[in-house]
Amino acid sequence: MASDEIIQRKALGRAAEIGFLYDATRDVFCGFSIFKTELQPNIIRKIDTPHTYLKYEYEDSYKEKFSILDVEAQLKISILSGLSPLEGSGKYLRDVKHESKSVKGSLIYKLLSVEENLNINHDNIIMYISENALRVQGATHVVTGIKWGGTVIASFEYEKTNEKDKRNMSQVKGVLKANLEKLSSYIPAFEGTGEIHNSEKQQTDIIDRFSIKIFGDVIPNDKILPQSFEEAKKIMTGLP
Q1: CA-to-CA distance for 80 and 227, rounded, in angstroms?
Q2: Coil, helix or strand at residue 115
Q3: Is 215 exposed, middle or buried (0-12, 13-18, 19+ CB in 10 A)?
Q4: Span 181-224, pLDDT tens digits
Q5: What angle do helix axes 229-237 and 169-184 make, rounded to 10 degrees?
Q6: Which of 73, 95, 159, 222 keeps 20 to 30 A from 135, CA to CA?
Q7: Contact between 36 and 131 (Cβ < 8 Å)
Q8: For the chain, give me the number of helices (H) and strands (E)?
Q9: Residue 48 bridge partners (DSSP)
Q10: Which tens digit of pLDDT belongs to each residue from 40-57?
């Protein structure tokens, strides 16, 4: 490990713990910890940082997606060049609009819970360091702080499949906006009435034409492709 520069990186669904080794030249975790055993509790400082964030996004550019996920400049380069793997919410970066005539929108929900920081000045920390970890090839940094939380993104896309589809795209966009707002009301942190007004019921055939994808750091694999708005609603209801 040759760098003493402090860097910050978004996990983007990648699992990590305090002490994990990181290769900043490829923006990947090395699969090893610098510590040989579990640390005693008082070596890690924990601060509760409860915070939730909700946003609706109707743009589909890399610029907007990187901004939504707060991706750092160096990590952007690693992602675009294919060096850094994407997991969980990070896979949203690959969710591209299929064609110019389609209508696309996303609901972005972020949750922060706890911040952990390693007390590197603790008297006993040296006894936990593994000499083998110091020889791990490619390791440039050690994880000394983590902001725990997660991001869940529900992505909806209406694709005009043929010229016989006479639906007005402005109407489709309106239905999308209304249903994204309705979907957010089922997230416990933003709980609302969840009622469907008559005008929305009349447009059920439109929302049923949307393909839906869920990207998240706490979503089971069998839930990432809900087949209907109702299935997506059930996933949102189960979020913390």
Answers
A1: 30
A2: strand
A3: buried
A4: 999 988 888 865 445 554 555 567 788 888 889 998 877 666 66
A5: 30
A6: 73
A7: no
A8: 6, 7
A9: 114
A10: 989 999 999 999 999 999
Residues 89-113 pLDDT 10s: 999 988 887 766 788 999 999 999 9
* Contact status, residue 187 vs residue 111, Cβ threshold 8 Å: no
How confident is the prediction for the chain on average, in pLDDT? 85
Work out whether the CA dihedral 3, 15, 228, 211 comes out positive or negative: positive
Q: Say what the pLDDT of residue 198 is.
A: 43
Please give the structure tokens belonging to residue 133.
């970890």
Phi, psi angles (nearest 5°) of residue 183: -60, -40
Give me the residue label for tokens 């890690």.
44
For 155: left if phi > 0, alpha if psi spans -120 to 50, otherwise beta; the answer is: beta
Q: What is the dihedral of CA 10, 16, 22, 24, to 10 degrees?
A: -10
For 57, the enclosing helix (H) or strand (E) is strand 44-57
167-179 pLDDT, tens digit each: 677 888 898 999 8
Q: By three-state DSSP, how is residue 156 classified?
A: strand
Q: What is the pLDDT of residues 75-89, one digit of tens each?
A: 999 998 888 888 889
